[in-house]
Amino acid sequence: GPPGNYEDPVLYTDKRGFHVFYHVYNYGDRDECVDATVSAHVFSEDGYTWHASPIQPYTTQIEVEDGTTVTISTRERPKLFFDRSGQMTHLFNGVCYATKCPSEKPCVDCKYTHWDYTLAQPLDLSPPTPAPFPPKPAGPGCTTEADGYTCHEDS
User: Fold this and answer.
1) CA distances from residue 122 to 2, 49, 65, 74, 119 in whole angstroms, order as listed
2) Which of 9, 107, 143, 151 gives a 20 to 30 Å CA spacing to 53?
């Protein structure tokens, strides 16, 4: 996972195993908070052997309903909301609405001089769109075609 100080763990399980989200802060994140470290995800199939994702599960960039992006300085105390079927639907965080702090303070400490609030973020539950197969040129003698696909002798 990303380097920094880990706190505020939240544990959940799903069909793939165990997961923990953390608030992570790094005192080296100063000035512009757009790239500040704020989270980590560790996971385990069996609860004994754990792996850390190299990618933060959420960042300081939040897309809002009108399509614009808001930058915050810190995103702490992660909490997850699950519906009745057990599907994770929302992520809640305590956040600080500051895009940068005075250069003598790290981004995580902006919360002491700027206003804070609780963010409720709906999660995108749509399945990923599969990538289409690239079309190949039709081979000789191939006559069957489907809309958007070309028949190939070697298929």
Assistant:
1) 24, 30, 10, 18, 10
2) 107
pLDDT tens per residue, range 5-47: 999 999 999 889 999 999 999 887 776 788 889 999 999 999 9
In angstroms, rounded to a whole number, what is the distance separating the alpha carbons of residues 53 and 45?
A: 14
Both tokens assigned to 47 = 């609860």
* Lookup result for tokens 């809309």: 147
The predicted-structure confidence for 95-132, as pLDDT tens digits, reads as follows 988 777 766 678 888 887 777 889 999 988 777 666 66
Structure-token pair, residue 25: 């802060």
Residue pair 60/75 in contact (Cβ under 8 Å)? The answer is yes
Query: CA 32 → CA 7, 62, 72, distances in Å?
Result: 22, 15, 10
Of 6, 41, 1, nearest to 25 by C-alpha is: 6
DSSP result, 78-120: EEEEE-TTS-EEEEEEEEE--SB--TTSBGGGGGGTS-EEEEE
d(CA 15, CA 34): 33
Are 37 and 19 spatial neighbours (Cβ–Cβ below 8 Å)? no
